[in-house]
């Protein structure tokens, strides 16, 4: 019988272990602010723009229009996003942050920063820069564009 590799022989194993820990802790942090990670990514994408059509947001986030619509509906219900009809095409609309939504983004960004420090603060500056460089290179070379939301 050929030898069978161990689970921890794979880079993906270690990457997933760290990714799960980082992601799960961040999800707990934002949940305390009544937001999911996907909703945070949505809010952050809208933060830099005043108004955005759902189709552009879907492209920006690498998600389907249906998924964007569901996220928008949840955020509308929470009062964090508003929908504005297009004056020329009644079927078209744009999304923007409400005042409450705009105020929530810096708070959530601070939680993301804190989470990064908690997990990656144990690395030297050089190690952290090398890790970021390698991960960005892998994402680019593999053509990964969708925002990680789960």
UniProtKB/TrEMBL annotation:
Annotated keywords: DNA-binding, Transcription, Transcription regulation
Segments forming a coiled coil: none
InterPro entries: HTH_MarR-typ, MarR/SlyA-like, Tscrpt_reg_MarR-type_CS, WH-like_DNA-bd_sf, WH_DNA-bd_sf
Domain HTH marR-type, chain residue ranges per copy: 8-140
PROSITE patterns per UniProt: HTH_MARR_1 (PS01117), HTH_MARR_2 (PS50995)
Pfam families found in the cross-reference section: MarR_2
Taxonomic superkingdom: Bacteria
Listed Gene3D superfamilies: Winged helix-like DNA-binding domain superfamily/Winged helix DNA-binding domain
One biological process term in Gene Ontology: response to stress
GO molecular function, one term: DNA binding
UniProt-recorded name of the protein: DNA-binding transcriptional regulator, MarR family
Organism: Xaviernesmea oryzae
């Amino acid at each position: 019988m050929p030898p069978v590799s161990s689970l921890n022989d794979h880079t993906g194993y270690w990457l997933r272990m760290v990714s799960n820990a980082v992601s799960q802790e961040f999800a707990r942090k934002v949940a305390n602010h009544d937001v999911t990670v996907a909703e945070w990514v949505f809010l952050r994408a809208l933060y830099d723009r005043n108004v955005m059509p759902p189709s552009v947001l879907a492209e920006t986030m690498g998600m389907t229009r249906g998924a964007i619509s569901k996220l928008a509906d949840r955020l509308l219900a929470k009062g964090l996003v508003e929908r504005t009809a297009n004056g020329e095409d009644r079927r078209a609309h744009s999304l923007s942050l409400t005042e409450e939504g705009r105020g929530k983004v810096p708070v959530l960004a601070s939680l993301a920063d804190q989470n990064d420090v908690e997990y990656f603060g144990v690395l030297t500056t050089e190690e952290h820069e090398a890790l970021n460089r390698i991960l960005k290179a892998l994402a680019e070379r593999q053509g990964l564009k969708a925002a990680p939301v789960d």
